[in-house]
Structure formats: structure tokens, C-alpha cells
């Protein structure tokens, strides 16, 4: 028997019983077979490609690489801004659809006065507008999913970094959301401002109030985080650098909400702080899941406040002996509770 191929050494030793080699021990050299049959190539065999050890190492490397894809997306800057424009356009389309449904239900309001009343205070139009936001959010997410996955060719969660990042686990994100909410309350109370569109929606009807609370938790966080920090941020950071990407994405996210809070400086300041914090977390961790958790927890607090707002209003003193400044401050605080960000 000739052992000329090192790669076959282990196989021959395993398949050939010791009893079939009497000629190797016939010279009373008892140590020769042991020395000759010592599998010196065992480390090479067990670390060869395709073996369990190498497969585990490759899996670890692949997992790390998969996590890094969130900062090296397969889509470019044009697609990122395209998704953003699509999200804005779809929201406008939802408003038009709500107005059409309103005129179908109330054809008598199809005039200038009826249109003005619908846009300003009609509870039915407000409720229809909120209801149309849900399918618009789902459609926006579907468009973003198609771009991120290449219509199902790439895994969505790996592409956007849908995992926890470093120290930003669930409870850290919840604690950060509470801190941002309290800081936002401070800003909104100190700077103050007039009644916002969100305040009008909340006070229009119970149906609108509960629908808005549901929207704030169920669809808004996942859609907004996917569009801004999941799809738009990575190619922008690759093209313009991390700092500029944080500034641009944060201002774009906050700017969309300025339309809702244009007459309330305090709420605008709070929304801006929240936007920069979320984008910084995305840049710091390279992950989207912590941003979603913070956003959802923040909006969850808001949703609870929105539902409980009628009871909170009873905290505002109405006695004539109450100093006007105290009543104004408490009123501003309650308005801030219910309208920081949706």
C-alpha cells in the first residue's frame, strides 16, 4: 500500500483496519505503526472548506456582512429621493381621495363655502382624511419594500438593518423615547404656541381622536422610519457623508411635520429635536430597528395622551381667582401633551 496523497491519508487510516497490516508489525517494531499512522493532517482536514468549523466561521462572517448592507445599500440616491417624493405625493393623493369621498357622502357641500367648512372643521372630512392615511401608508411601505428588496430578490430586514445595534436594545430605546418626550414637553411648554391642526383633529370627534391614536402607533413609525432612515439615509450618507446626511434627513423629516405645527414654535422645536435624535441613532448604530422602537414608544406615549385628553382638560383651572399665567401655562402643557408629534 502506497500513501502518496496527503489528502487521502485520513480516509485510508479510517477504512483500513489495523488487523489487515501484519507485515507492519512483523519486525517487532511496535512503535512504527503508531508513528506512521498518526494523522498529522487532522487540523487541515477539519478546517478545510465545507467542514463544520469553516461553515460556522463563514456563517458568522456572512451575518456580519449582512448587517453591514444597511450602510451600503443596493439602491442609489435617486431611488432614495424617489421614495420620499412618492410618500409625499401619496399623502396628497390621500387628501384628494378623502375630499372626493366627502363630496360623495355630502354632495350639497360641493361649493366654495362647503369646501372651506370641510377643510377647517367638518368632523366627517377630518375622519375620512385620517382613514385614508392607513391605505396610503401601506402603499408607501409597499413601494419602499419593492425598492429595498428589488421586488423580493433581497431580504428586507438585512437590507435596512432591522436588528438591534450595540447598546441600543429595547429598554434603552424606550428610556430614550421617554427622555425625548419629556424634553419635548419642556420645549413646547416654554416656547408655547397656538392651537395646531392636530389639536383641531383631536377635538373634532371621538372617532377622529381614537383613529389618530391608532395611526400614531400602528403605521406611522414603521412607514416614516423606512422612508427616511431606512431608504433615504444610507445612499445620502454614502454620497454626501454622515454629517450632511444626518442634517438633511433630520430637516426633511421635521419639515414635513412643520405643516401641521406651523403656528406652534414649541412643538416645532420638539419635533426637530426628535428628528435629529432618531437620525443620530441610525448613524450611530447602523440599524433601523432602534429608530423604530424609539419612534413607536414616543408615539405610543402620544397615543395614550390623545385618548386621555378629555380627562386631562379637567386639570385646567377655570376659577376666576386663578392667576392667568398659571392657567395659560397649564393649558399650554396639556396642548403640548396631545400634539407633540404624530
What does this 3D model show about the protein?
The protein is mostly helical and 342 residues long. It folds into two domains: 6-64, no CATH class; 141-339, no CATH class. The chain contains 17 helices and no strands. The chain has helices at residues 9-15, 22-25, 31-36, 42-46, 52-68, 77-105, 112-120, 123-149, 156-160, 170-191, 197-204, 206-218, 220-240, 242-258, 265-285, 289-312, 324-339. The radius of gyration is 31 Å and the shape is globular. It starts with 8 loop residues before the first helix and ends with a helix.
Summarize the structure.
By secondary structure, the protein is mostly helical. It contains 17 helices and no strands.
The parts where pLDDT drops under 50 for at least 5 residues are 1-68, 317-339
Q: Helices and strands: which structural class? A: mainly alpha
Query: How many strands, which pairing sense, and closed or not: the largest β-sheet?
Result: none
Order of helices and strands: HHHHHHHHHHHHHHHHH
Number of helices in the DSSP assignment:
17
How far do the termini sit from each other? 80 Å
Q: If you compute it from the alpha carbons, what radius of gyration comes out, rounded to the nearest whole angstrom? A: 31 Å
Q: Tell me, what's the shape? A: globular
Mean pLDDT figure? 78
Q: Count structural domains.
A: 2
Measured by DSSP, the beta-strand proportion falls in under 5%
In helices, the fraction of residues equals over 70%
Q: Based on DSSP secondary structure assignment, what is the total number of beta strands?
A: 0
Amino acid at each position: 500500500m502506497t500513501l502518496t496523497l496527503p489528502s487521502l491519508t485520513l480516509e485510508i487510516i479510517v477504512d483500513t483496519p489495523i488487523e489487515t497490516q501484519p507485515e507492519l508489525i512483523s519486525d517487532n517494531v511496535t512503535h512504527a505503526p503508531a508513528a506512521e499512522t498518526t494523522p498529522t493532517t487532522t487540523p487541515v482536514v477539519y478546517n478545510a472548506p465545507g467542514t463544520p468549523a469553516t461553515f460556522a466561521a463563514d456563517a458568522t462572517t456572512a451575518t456580519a456582512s449582512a448587517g453591514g448592507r444597511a450602510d451600503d445599500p443596493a439602491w442609489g440616491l435617486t431611488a432614495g429621493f424617489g421614495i420620499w417624493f412618492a410618500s409625499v405625493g401619496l399623502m396628497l393623493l390621500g387628501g384628494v381621495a378623502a375630499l372626493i369621498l366627502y363630496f360623495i357622502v355630502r354632495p350639497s357641500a360641493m361649493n366654495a363655502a362647503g369646501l372651506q367648512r370641510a377643510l377647517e372643521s367638518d368632523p366627517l372630512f377630518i375622519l375620512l382624511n385620517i382613514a385614508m392615511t392607513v391605505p396610503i401608508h401601506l402603499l408607501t411601505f409597499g413601494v419602499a419594500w419593492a425598492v429595498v428588496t428589488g421586488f423580493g430578490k433581497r431580504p428586507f430586514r438585512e437590507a435596512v438593518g432591522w436588528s438591534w445595534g450595540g447598546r441600543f436594545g429595547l429598554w434603552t430605546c424606550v428610556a430614550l423615547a421617554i427622555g425625548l418626550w419629556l424634553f419635548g414637553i419642556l420645549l413646547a411648554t416654554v416656547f408655547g404656541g397656538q392651537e395646531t391642526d392636530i389639536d383641531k383633529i383631536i377635538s373634532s370627534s371621538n372617532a377622529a381622536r381614537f383613529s389618530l391614536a391608532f395611526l400614531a402607533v400602528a403605521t406611522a413609525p414603521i412607514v416614516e422610519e423606512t422612508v427616511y432612515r431606512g431608504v433615504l439615509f444610507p445612499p445620502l450618507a454614502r454620497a454626501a457623508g454622515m454629517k450632511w446626511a444626518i442634517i438633511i434627513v433630520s430637516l426633511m423629516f421635521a419639515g414635513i411635520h412643520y405643516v401641521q405645527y406651523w403656528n406652534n414654535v414649541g412643538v416645532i422645536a420638539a419635533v426637530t429635536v426628535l428628528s435629529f435624535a432618531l437620525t443620530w441613532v441610525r448613524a450611530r448604530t447602523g440599524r433601523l430597528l432602534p429608530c423604530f422602537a424609539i419612534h413607536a414608544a414616543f408615539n405610543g406615549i402620544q397615543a395614550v395622551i390623545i385618548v386621555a385628553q378629555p380627562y386631562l382638560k379637567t386639570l385646567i383651572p377655570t376659577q376666576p381667582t386663578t392667576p392667568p399665567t398659571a392657567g395659560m401655562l397649564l393649558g399650554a402643557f396639556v396642548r403640548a401633551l396631545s400634539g407633540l408629534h404624530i
